[in-house]
Amino acid sequence: MEKSNKVGILKFNLEEPRTQKDFILATKANLLMLTIDEIWNQCFRPAFKHGYANQEIQGLIDNIGDEAIELIRLLGEEYQGVKNDYLNDDFL
């Protein structure tokens, strides 16, 4: 299969204040994607891997037990579902 070379160009009139925000969002899109992944890494992943560095969070999990982990798992599934709905292959 031959690889196609697709090119996309975005143009913004930076003299118009209403398009300045659009320009900033477009130029920071990669940072936003990294932030979305980091939310997973810091908020959900520790429950299933090495535990939380935040002692208050880890203490609550230790006190509550398996129900806390189950709640985090369910919230993580919801998070991933929303992420997948918005950032699917059609979007990227």
Number of strands: 0
Structural class: mainly alpha
Helix content: 55-70%
Largest β-sheet summary: none
Task: Catalogue the unreliable spans.
Answer: none
> How much is the radius of gyration in Å?
20 Å
Shape: elongated
Distinct helical segment count? 5
What structural keywords apply?
66% helix, elongated, mainly alpha, 92 residues, 5 helices
Kindly describe this structure.
The protein is 66% helix and 0% strand. The protein contains 5 helices and no strands.
Structural topology:
Layout: H1 17-27, H2 29-43, H3 45-48, H4 55-64, H5 66-86
Helix pairs in contact: 4-5
Describe the structure in brief.
The chain has helices at 17-27, 29-43, 45-48, 55-64, 66-86.
